[in-house]
């Protein structure tokens, strides 16, 4: 039976490179028993958390929250893809995670951070959040260090496959880990 993984793009900046990384991950993580869908927070466009009830109640009044709930509850696991901004994670990712609670609980999750130093500090912060949401952190998490020589004048990859080649084995292992964890 095919399992669904939601690959959440945690950056909404117009100049972001996360769509390139996400497409590469989607291809590189591929497994016969997994469907990996891209979930772009720039397209979801959630306002700052505006629900009256706390998310753990599962009572959602706003149409955008109900739509987000429907989308997220349909996934078996998640990859959170995010850059490091000033040693932290992007606010839209935190906001999107905070909107829900039960929908995240007990689902496997991996973090793929990126930045000029791999996004280590951002990953530490997100790790606390996913634990608070009772998600199941996987052992395979990527920290992609951006190399200026791989980027053009606009900060986009010249050749995404070449730039991310050092991370291919770990991305393949991540796909295999999802397959194993969700095989039950």
TrEMBL record:
GO terms for cellular component: cytosol. Residues 4-140 form the NADPH-dependent FMN reductase-like domain. InterPro entries: Flavoprotein-like_sf (IPR029039), FMN_Rdtase-like_dom (IPR005025), NAD(P)H-dep_reductase (IPR050712). GO terms for molecular function: FMN binding; oxidoreductase activity. Pfam families: FMN_red. It comes from the Bacteria. This is Flavoprotein. It comes from Levilactobacillus hammesii DSM 16381.
